[in-house]
Amino acid sequence: MKWWKIWFSVVIIALSGAVCQGERANRCTASRAKTCTECIRVDKDCSYCADEDTDVIRCDLQSNLQSTCKRIIQMKSSMTIRKMTRINTSSKRTQISPQEVSMTLRAGEEKMLNIEVFQPLEAPVDLYFLMDFSNSMEDDLDNLKKLGLKLADVVRNMSSDYTIGFGKFVDKVTVPQTDMRPSRLKQPWPNSDAPFSFKNVIPLTPNATHFTQKLEKERISGNVDAPEGGFDAILQVAVCQNNIGWRSQSTHLLVFSTESAFHYEADGSNVLSGILTRNDENCHLDWTGSYTQDVLQDYPSIPTLIRLLGQHSIIPIFAVTNYSYSYYEKLSKYFPVADIGRLQQDSSNIIELLRRSFENIRSKMEIRAENIPKTMRAKVSSLSASRSQSESSTFTVTPGVVNKFRLNIKALDNVGDAHLCDSPKGDQRGKVIVKPSTFTDALTVDASLLCDQCDCDQFPEVNSPKCHLHGNFTCGHCLCGPNWRGQTCNCHMGTEGDVKACINPADSSSKICSDRGECQCGKCQCLPSENHLEIFDGDFCEFSSLLCPRFAGFRCNARGKCFKEQCVCENGWTGPSCDCPISNATCIDTNGGLCNGKGICICGRCECEDKDTDPTCGSVTYLQLLGLCEDTRTCVQCQAWNTGEKKGKNCKKCTNVFEFVEELKSENLVTESCQFRDEADDCTYYYTVEKHPSANISHVQALKKKDCPPGSFLWLIPLIIFLMLLLGLLLMLCWKYCACCRACCARLPCCAMLPCGARGTMVGFKEDHYMLRQSKLTSDSLDTPMVRTNKPDGTDIVRWQVVDNVHKGATAQTQPTNPKDTVLYNLSLRAARVFNDELRKPDSREFDQLRLDVDENLNEVYKRVTGAQAVRKTKFRLQPNAGKRQDLTIIDTQLPAPRSAQSEIVKLTEHQVTMGAFNDLKVIPGYYTVASDRDALGLVEFQDGVESVDVRVPLFVKDEDDDEKRLRVEALDVPLGKAEIGKRFVDITIIKEAAKSIVTFLQPSYTYQRQDKVAKIPLLREIIEDGRTQVSYRTRDLTAKDGKDYISTENEVTFLPGETHKEIPVKLLEQTEIDSLLGNEQIKQFLMELYKPRNGAKLGKFPRTTVTIADENAKQMLNLNQSMLPIDSPPLSVKAHPIDSKRIRVNWSPPLGEPSGYKLKYWPEDDEFASKVIDTKSTTVELTNLHPGCDYAMDVLAYNHLGSGPRSGIARCRTPDDLTQATIPLKQGTISIESPPTNVKAQPIDSKRIRMNWVPPQGRPTGYKVTYWIEGDENSSQVLNTTVPSADLPNLYPYCDYEMDVFAYNALGAGPRSEIVRCRTPEDLPNEPGRLAFNVISPTVTQLSWAEPSETNGEITEYEVSYAVVTDENKPIGPKKTVKINKPKKRMVMIENLKEEQPYRYTVRAKNGAGWGPIREATMNLSTQPKRPMSIPIIPDIPIIDAEAHDEYENFLMYSSDVMRSPRPSVSDDTDMQLNGKWEMNSLFPGSATSSINRSMTTSHSQQYGMMGTSSMTSETHTTMMSGYGSAIHGKKAGNYTITQQMIGGRRRTESEDVNAALDNLEMVLHESRSPGIPDTPTRLVFSALGATSLKVSWQKPLCEREVLGYRVTYQPLLGDEMQTIDISDPNENSLIINDLLPNYSYMFKVKAMSEQGWGPEREGVITIESKVDPLSPLSPVPGSPFTLSTPSAPGPLVFTAINSELLKLSWEKPRKPNGDIMGYLVTCEPLDGHDEVKTYQVEGDDAEMTLMVPHLSENIPYKFKVQAKTTQGYGPEREGIITIESQDGGRSQHTNLSEYSKQMVMRHEGYSLPGAMSTETSLMHSTIDPFFSDGMTVTTQRMESGTTVTQQITRTMMTGGTITKQTERQLYEA
């Protein structure tokens, strides 16, 4: 390096340091700190002057204060090494030095600490083998037993000091993970152990023989589902340090072996096992080593395992089979140091796998800082040969060598907008732990912030005389009180004082405070500027913040603040405009040096000695070697044969080493092999180039002999000589007339050959014009070549621009646009990294890492742009023709931002590209593209020697384009380089061809069964002009996954002439084992889409379709109309144009997604309350009936059935002042419309559409406007525009009353509206019922309940309950029982006599007028569930179903509340059929002396059946029930009921008929308090906001047999306040406007109706009007601010679980739509007997599912529970539930209803007479002490006689001590 450059570098660095110090000084003074504490918190270099009566700036650098201040206050940070033990390399243990350090830091300060880490060549090793013991691993266990000693040998080879241990795991011992049948719990498989979760079999031991012997005794176990519970085992191995035997100074290795996937957190909380408690991360091993909390705690999460294994220095090694390898491969990447190996199916390669894994682990080490406070940042970097792997904290180290690292801990300047010292105390201090991954030792750094107050600030002199009693004296100066100023607080605000002191002596104008402030007490108080960006400053307000230096258009380069028209730079930046980084990080080369020692770092960039280098002055890299032949060509010509461009003196400039050889080296031994043709003799010469990337000299070997053409053309030589002489003569003549040649021939190419006309390097486009056909386009851009001629040396960067629709002239570019519209800006950058194939795969890890890095850095840069959103859809590609950089990665992404921000985005992008970095993302200067929706700007780079590069021009292809449109691309200038612009323009014309055919799918969705194997998707072609057409297709994953559910495909379809139909085959795969075992019911769907239509083809109505793969267990869950593409962006390019004085046309471009319609909202710009909404399916809408000369605003959103997308930016347009300004000429004879349309009719088409038609009025209408709304809520109206006298109203609610009217209009205006017509939409199928809930009474009795469907879509008329026995694989076996309940309010049944230890599948579905809806199903095995002795008396009398009865069994149904309290099944006989039976039952219930209960029932039933044509059978039944109640019944009235049933037709009643008949009888028995004339609940309570404090409430008239007389509306705030009541006497008035509500307050509204019989039930609703309020007056909304409605929802269904007779567990789900953030819940418990007081519980938390343990409850007392969510807006609506905990002894207390029984005897006799001389008799005797809970015996005898045989069967049932023994002819079993 030359000496002058070295001195120049020293001077630059010195100047930079001086500037830096100056800037830092200004940082202290610019803070304007008023107190000592504020000053020292500004910066670590700031000091404070506490002298009295001084005029110096008190907060300044210490160096500036030393000469002027005597008492200087400064706080210094510190760093102390508390413990430092040097590393002993002879020790065989891992070490780190130092061990303990403490430090204090001031805000923004960074401290560095060098640490040493030593990993010995041989360290102690602890290896614990954790193995899956499910049945599928049996052969693996056998092989492991054989390899036991070899396994110990492998560990011994790792280290002579070793221990080895063994553990086994299966899964949680509960359903569905484990088969809970008793036989399977003892032995799930032959020769196996009982199921378990985890067991520590062999703690770590150095005895290999002991290890092998214990391993030989182990047997396999088993479970049900495929994923295993290995995470439970890993956590216990990590936290149970003493049980496992981990040593403190050893390397801990955990080998995890399995062939299945894993369960993780939340898998335990499924419906069947119901484990909700989160894992507490503690050790739970008993004395046998078994895990004891497997059924009480959930699985741990993946982050928990990563944290705990790292905390205990355990390195996992995953030894898994090919089946689960993909799962664990992804899992292993989350661990800092881990390894994974692929096991063979029998684990025979485990030894080799462990050996390889240990070698991999020893070469890696992770060092990271943990427990870092929020106010600090810490980073570990390497100082030795150990290199970091990418940007992570994992390093490659060499064992046996001391490796050096550096720890940087930096205190932040701010946390958010708050200063560091204002953060919580807990965040200001922390113990940072730095520990290598394989170590047990660690470095502890006690780091804290220096946030102490100055001593003088802590003890101020209050109201000091030194301050004229108007302020406090502290730290040498006065802090004045309000309205007082001056150094001694002697100036009262408002006192002008000495005006002369406020005049700037340097200003000749003598203006007071420079006309920018007011003079107060002789001091200038600067006023705010009219420009909100401008701030006045200085003693005389003479400085303006707008005059600070700028860089690239940004004030202070957006890296500093303006102070007195000078930039005060942020930390790390310097320079007059803060454009130079202080750090030299951008100049560091790949070897860690500075500019490779060949340049100096100035302003963050290397100034290199040699131009032909990379940005860090590096030598020619392999990227530049790509053009090596071209670069050396001219030098080889001149050195070998003295020919070419550099012959003569220029050849001396060639630096390569040259030599002739007889034979060239082979291509694999050299860098490049080259060959060129020598223009001098037309011969081809050959040479090789050898060049090392670290060297700068090329070694060239040239072949002596050239390849020359034959010599038969020697006669041309004299001719060529003659022509050359002639050309030389012409050149001499031209030389004399040089000026003339320049003037006349400058534009002729041949003149460039003349010395006088020669030009320099030229750049320009290669072609003048491109003609493209839109149907042939395969991309939305065109690579347009740009060429460089005449000495393509050096680097030239060309700025280019493309403009769309230039054929329209200037009007196309000056069309009015809304600057607030959101535009998607397409950005392209060239990253400083080589492209590889992994970046083409969006699902690859490398793609994902780079995408996250790009998004993070670009978002950090573009957040400066006002209104900019996060970048999206980032992808990567290559730019083929890019010169020497064509192997680098091109980044393409999208930036949503306002249209007005385009220039700012371009400037910011060019600035960052010039700097070579976007934050931490390195990019190559000289290339970028920023494209909006109508123009684009960018740079393209010519490297040295490159003659041609491509410009990727966006084509802006849109549907609304003209049939022929033209784009113009222009080369604007050359900001870097010497080239001149030559061919400046190129035009691109795109022609739309008329479609020859239209290709589309037949419908938007299809469904195929998985067993079909192949989905054949039909494709339709509509022929317009016959011929051959093509279209491409491809599949995309939705919920179905490629390779798992189907095989993806991408191909093309060719339609030959005349063909109209094709089928696209897609192969469907069988359901996976995991999905089959778990009964996965997720709907599997994928997308098939068409693209690239060619040869005149055009895509039709359905260019894409959703394919659903149906499974048997998911058939009822399909919703074919469901689309999987939500709308996540607003409509684009919203434009509005006036048509005339009353009409505006609005159009826009559709957003991404699949919109089914649009809603356009428009309003007068000054009155948004008067807004209207238009619903349309088109992208163009015409607004009519507007006011002339009025400004209108409008926006639009798109929607589909998944919801609405975001609204677009607001567009604005003004209507002309009168009709003549912009009116389209009227047709002759046009007259105004004076009458409305007549004969308006409305009829429903289906449940969501209504068709209207009418007779047009007179006056030649050009269109009609249909307005429709929900009856009673006219504010929800929507408008439909049509040009014909009919309209279809779409997207309506099923089973809803609508009102509508219509008016006509033409060019003269609108006519009057028609009369209002009404129509109700038909019913639609209901949704599935709510979640099924089971109240398990016993292993054979359950109470099943369900919730009403979320959308009834009509009136529910009945429910259907089905249940059947299923296998472990959830396949039905045996008949399915079905019961239909036509009382929709009774959503509960009790099912008895279920088979023990058998799982049942239960299904429930609802029916309305449209039919049956989908089913809700659940599978339950009652024997695996705990008994819950409770009842839910919300519906106190429910059907009880006998599971053993057949479809024709009559007496299977009971409704007695007695039976509800029975904890065991009632006993029934085995009779399948009763014919002509008669039975009697006499019961005696002797009670106490004061009460008795007597009941008798006689049943007679008569029926007649026809049998076999001639025979008949009769049966008669008559039932009489008498009940008497004493005082113990709490005053219930006695009742006598006689029920007579007559059945004819030879058919017995089914179960469903019995259920419904019993429900009818139940209604009669209950004697409901509501009379038939009382109104029902009002329906469809609708809220409409009229303002921030005004609300309209509307409802629909309820059903009532009598006339409704009026309504009552009550409302009050949920937080509590006076209830307001409003009575409405007009029954036709079903809406109400309420004013003076409080903004952001939640109100509870209740509406009920009244008739002559009284008030009906209430309809409730909670609503909140959200709006912006004045901060000083929270109850007053800001005028003109927007407002919205918010409706909170109640918590989820209440689930009760009785723990014991006094303790209840209450669970509920989080509200689906909480109004604000949930702060907790309020739970109230009210006993309904009125004896105890109401209890209230406050529950904190916002988990998805909450629980509360409620103690001290009483048996047999019903309790009402209410749960409300507390949010930031108040309490939401309540969720109620009533529960009773029943006693196990039947409630033997003096208050129970029927517990006074002491003895019961039942005798029953049945007789049947059958035709054909056959008769049967049945006798039954039942004797018990207590009819429900005591012991007893039942004896049943049946005798059947016929003409030839007699059969008798005796059944005895004994019940003793709760055990039932039932003996039949077929089986004997115990329950």
Give a short summary of the structure:
By secondary structure, the chain is mostly beta strands. Helices cover 12% and strands 39% of the residues. The protein contains 22 helices and 121 strands.
Question: Can you describe this structure?
Answer:
- The chain is 12% helix and 39% strand.
- The protein is mainly beta.
- The strands form 32 sheets. Strands 44, 46, 47, 48, 49, 50, 51, 52, 54 and 56 form a 10-stranded mixed beta sheet that branches.
- Helix 5 packs parallel to helix 12 and helix 8 packs parallel to helix 10.
- It is globular, with a radius of gyration of 44 Å.
SSE topology:
Blueprint: H1 3-30, H2 36-40, E1 46-49, E2 59-61, H3 62-65, E3 72-73, E4 78-83, E5 95-97, E6 100-105, E7 110-118, E8 125-132, H4 138-146, H5 148-158, E9 162-169, H6 182-186, E10 198-205, H7 208-216, H8 230-239, H9 241-244, E11 251-258, H10 302-311, E12 314-321, H11 325-332, E13 339-343, H12 350-362, E14 364-370, E15 376-382, E16 387-388, E17 394-396, E18 402-411, E19 414-415, E20 418-419, E21 429-436, E22 443-449, H13 455-458, E23 471-474, E24 477-480, E25 484-485, E26 491-492, E27 517-520, E28 523-526, E29 536-537, E30 543-544, E31 550-551, E32 554-555, E33 560-563, E34 566-569, E35 573-574, E36 580-581, E37 599-602, E38 605-608, H14 628-641, E39 657-661, E40 672-678, E41 683-690, E42 699-703, H15 716-736, H16 738-745, E43 762-765, E44 769-773, E45 781-789, E46 796-803, H17 810-813, E47 822-834, H18 845-862, E48 872-877, E49 888-898, H19 902-915, E50 917-918, E51 921-931, E52 935-942, E53 948-954, E54 964-976, E55 980-981, E56 985-991, E57 997-1001, E58 1005-1009, E59 1014-1023, E60 1029-1037, E61 1050-1055, ...
Parallel strand pairs: 6-22, 8-9, 8-11, 11-12, 12-13, 39-42, 43-55, 44-56, 57-64, 58-65, 86-91
Antiparallel strand pairs: 1-2, 1-3, 4-6, 5-7, 7-18, 9-10, 14-17, 14-21, 15-18, 16-17, 19-20, 21-22, 23-24, 25-26, 27-28, 29-30, 31-32, 33-34, 35-36, 37-38, 40-41, 41-42, 43-45, 45-53, 46-52, 46-54, 47-49, 47-51, 48-49, 50-51, 51-52, 54-56, 57-59, 59-62, 60-61, 60-63, 63-65, 66-67, 67-70, 68-69, ...
Helix pairs in contact: 5-12, 8-10
